[in-house]
Each structure stands twice: as structure tokens, then as C-alpha cells.
Here is the input.
Amino acid sequence: MNKLHYSPEALRDLDEIFSELENPSAAENIINTILEAVDKLQDFSMLGSLLSSVTELESDYRFLVCGNYLVFYRVVGSNVYIDRVLYGRRDYLRSLFNKNME
Here is the structure.
């Protein structure tokens, strides 16, 4: 079983998702859907697609699609690092690689 590690940014992303939605019940459902998808990575770390399959940037990121949100993560051995949880219509490449794109 893989060990999940949430970055401070990913935790902040989840908090922002919850606080930005006006309906607390809907927000809770979305967060639960995201967390359930991430939990599957404990057993199936390669479940998500490679980010390099949808962009020309080479990286070790994989991603899961959870409704309107994308969970970006990396697998290192038996550790899964959840780096960001971003709205799918956002410029997620800039959010992930902001230092490299400026």
C-alpha cells in the first residue's frame, strides 16, 4: 500500500474549493469526491494519466480528473505526493510550473 502525502498547497487548494462554493453541502460532496479518488492511489498509484500525455512539458506529474477539478501528483517508490488540486479550466500549467514559465 502506498503512503499519501499532501503538500501545503494541495491542502490550501482543498480549503479554497470548500470556501469558494456557496452551497456547503455541494462543497462537501466535491471535497469528498476528490478525497475518495485520491484514496484509490494508495492501491493504484498509476491510476492517473501522465501530464506529458496532454502537454509538451516533460514532468513526472500524473493527474486525476475529479469532476471539474484536477489532482496533480507524483509517485516516488511507495510514496504518492499530492501537490495540487486545481480547477480544470484554470491555467493549471502556470500554477504547477510558475517558476519555470516566467
User: Anything to note?
Assistant: The helical segments are 8-20, 24-39, 92-101. The CA atoms of residues 10 and 84 lie 4 Å apart.
